[in-house]
Amino acid sequence: MSKTITRRRALSVLGGMGLAAFGLSACSNAGSGSSASGEGESKIGVLQLTEHAALDAANKGFVKALDDSGIKYTIDQQNAQNDQSACQTIASKLVNEGNDLILAIATPACQAVAGATTDIPIVGTAITDYAASGLVADNDAPGGNVTGTSDLTPVEEQFDLLQKLLPDAKKVAILYCTAESNSSVQAEMAHDAARTRKLDAEDYTVSSSNEIQQVVESMIGKVDVIYAPTDNTIAAGMQTVSMVATEHKLPIICGESGMVANGGLATYGIDYEKLGYKTGEMAVKILNGEAKPAEMPIEHLDVSECTLATNKEIAKTLGIDLSKLDA
């Protein structure tokens, strides 16, 4: 059964890691305390693929943008717990409930919602390439009911970071999940970055979280460093990746800061709360009738908004000198 909560509590829930599957419903700016949409209120559904720091932060930023805009709205938060069939079920639910707009967080979530409606406006976030994922006709001119923000990671800068911290590294394992189309896009970018730096790169892939430990163990003795892009399955399983890799003195350069906090060595990446906030601003324009998804180009954060994140404990365990980054 869904639970109705106030705007104040909605923000505190989104700030944590407890977005429960199939049933967290939040009422924001609604004086009646009901989750039903009242007069002048927009009804918003949210489908988040899974729980991990980056997606949670994007969700939080989205809600903050809605609140800062002053619009009246109700919001139904749903989390698929990285289950593809659950994505389909939740997408159908949100469409059938007649939401005015749906936020889809991560590529599989957006694909599920886009497959369920061509009428309800959809804004996505934490998606690398909308066009490559079949979500829009063109990233600059979407042409349908889907638009949003891209979390395209600064791969070149991350490989610069890799070489600065690990100048002797020659062989790179690119770790990602084959079930996520945008991870393949990032893997191709990583291969290009490695090639230009005369590094040998090899894909190590999983099809589900159950394979992570075995795949990481298969790298031992074959590579010098792991590169893990902004892949949701790997991000959710970073503690497992780090458990194996750190034991064998294998550093991990990550796609985003949440992965670093959970056992990676370092990243130069985007702020997902800022990305979610930008997505919320796009949603407000749509709800206010100021813009249509078909005419709203996919937006990005500027590279200048990317930040360095390091894990001092992991660096100490691996014997890596982070002061190299100050040079």
Give structural notes.
By secondary structure, the chain is α/β, with parallel strands linked by helices. It is 38% helix and 21% strand. The protein contains twelve helices and 14 strands. It has helices spanning 7-15, 53-69, 84-96, 107-116, 155-165, 181-196, 212-217, 232-236, 238-247, 257-261, 272-287, 312-318, and strands spanning 3-5, 24-28, 42-48, 73-79, 101-105, 122-127, 146-150, 171-177, 200-206, 225-228, 252-254, 266-269, 299-300, 307-310. The strands form three sheets. The chain has an eight-stranded mixed sheet, with helices on both faces. It has a four-stranded parallel sheet with strand order 9-8-10-11. A two-stranded antiparallel sheet has the order 12-14. Strand 1 (3-5), helix 1 (7-15) and strand 2 (24-28) form a beta-alpha-beta unit. Helix 3 (84-96) packs across helix 4 (107-116). The longest helix has 17 residues, at 53-69. It is elongated and about 60 Å long. The N and C termini lie far apart (55 Å). 52% of the residues are buried. The model is unreliable at 1-36 (pLDDT under 50).
Quick tags:
single chain, 327 residues, alpha/beta, 8-stranded mixed β-sheet, 4-stranded parallel β-sheet, 12 helices
Helix-strand layout with pairing:
Layout: E1 3-5, H1 7-15, E2 24-28, E3 42-48, H2 53-69, E4 73-79, H3 84-96, E5 101-105, H4 107-116, E6 122-127, E7 146-150, H5 155-165, E8 171-177, H6 181-196, E9 200-206, H7 212-217, E10 225-228, H8 232-236, H9 238-247, E11 252-254, H10 257-261, E12 266-269, H11 272-287, E13 299-300, E14 307-310, H12 312-318
Parallel strand pairs: 1-2, 3-4, 3-5, 5-6, 6-7, 7-13, 8-9, 8-10, 10-11
Antiparallel strand pairs: 2-4, 12-14
Helix pairs in contact: 2-11, 3-4
